[in-house]
């Protein structure tokens, strides 16, 4: 059984593989459009100075997501 | 704990188990149609990229280290303030000499224009209207605005080219989140330093209509290029010429910080009153950092921004100069219309730490903030013309020597410059972007109320405490 956790809990520096999206509506579309479709690999790159938005490497691009949005993406650590 | 959260999320979701989603985007996969489309598009794109793209360099070399520094817990915020302060300092120090040079050249031109009109035998009213009304106002605006604008826009464009601005948005997003909006407002705010009308237009990058409106209505709280010269001139005079450009820089930077705090406060108030609504989201791409290209940056900032803003300022300043010359020259019962208006506003102005002429200058400066200081001087000199204020010392003499300005007058004037209705262009842009007169009116009233309250509080507070 793979370990599954929200993207927001992925430790900094670690890679994860997208399992599914929990979001609904506009946010889901926006996350999908970033390329967060199942099987995509994502790296948590760094946290902001105040800890919250976290930068992720998604398909070569650096994307900042808030805890709320990242928490709706489920990943399994690689 | 984390894991349990994650698993409970999965069980609450009506999608296929993880194993199924690793398979082909099969027909029995209960994903929405859009999900399937996006997955297919990405699969196709991946295949194409794998065939066509070769990566020479692994991600994460120097950019990663710089990025770590720019957004670090310890240095992220200090660096941000340092860079902002440095931008102001370079502008303040660098603009001084070219400004004087430009003023000299332009006022030399005035002499030639006057000679030409005399030679042509123009009537004295035309002479006055064209030379002392239109030309002097335009010359003032160009001499005072062009050098700081050219420097500031270039410095700013360098930071933009480096890719720093999205990092700022990223760093301060939590503050905007507390205010009920999002970090992209930091980008539109930065744009507002150049020009609030451009800042309001830049609000298109914010997806949610509610947050876009908040960003538009609060954009005016960062001083635009039309107001910087006023702030810089007053700060240079009253922060003590003895203390040098450093004290003036600190004063201007302090005012900008006040503006940012009020932006947050006003956003917070708006998102809890008239603009309540769906919670904010924040998804921002951080473009790769890259060394700025100086030539491209210089050309772009000079052509696209500096000349554009300057042209706008001049087209507004020219007719405004003529109008003010008429107001100052038209007498009613022995007093010029300008002086009468100032007299009416004087009690209100005094209560707010200023005087009637200053308030009148702000009101008549509605078309463009650049002309507030010129109008004020015209009013003070009540000759209907601008004197040739070539140096700050001459300006200081007029304000302090002849019209009794104190540091409180300067402070309240700077605060009111920071916090009052935006220029006409910005209001028109708000109207156009929102498609309603309502938001344009609010866009004028909210900052005006903030300015009146702040100036009243500061002036009354300082007087009550006997600080002056």
TrEMBL record, chain A:
Species of origin reads Desulfofundulus australicus DSM 11792
Query: Which molecular function terms from Gene Ontology are attached?
Result: transition metal ion binding
Query: Has keyword Iron?
Result: yes
What does the organism's lineage look like at the top? Bacteria, Bacillati, Bacillota, Clostridia, Eubacteriales
Question: What does the UniProt keyword field contain?
Answer: Iron
Query: What is the name attached to this protein's record?
Result: Ferrous iron transport protein A
Q: Does the keyword Acetylation apply?
A: no
Domain Ferrous iron transporter FeoA-like, which positions? 5-77
| Highest taxon above the source species | Bacteria
Automatic annotation (TrEMBL), chain B:
Q: Where is the Ferrous iron transport protein B C-terminal domain?
A: 253-301
Short name of one Pfam family for this protein? Gate
Q: Which InterPro entries does the UniProt entry name for this protein? A: Fe2_transport_prot_B_C, FeoB_GTPase, Gate_dom
Record domain Nucleoside transporter/FeoB GTPase Gate: where: 144-237, 311-435
Keyword list, A-Z: Membrane, Transmembrane, Transmembrane helix
Q: Does the keyword Nucleotide-binding apply?
A: no
Q: Report the GO terms under cellular component.
A: plasma membrane
Molecular function via GO: ferrous iron transmembrane transporter activity
Q: Where are the transmembrane segments?
A: 74-93, 113-131, 138-159, 186-206, 213-240, 246-270, 348-368, 405-430, 439-459
Q: Which domain of life is it from?
A: Bacteria
UniProt name for this protein: Ferrous iron transport protein B
* Source species of the chain: Desulfofundulus australicus DSM 11792
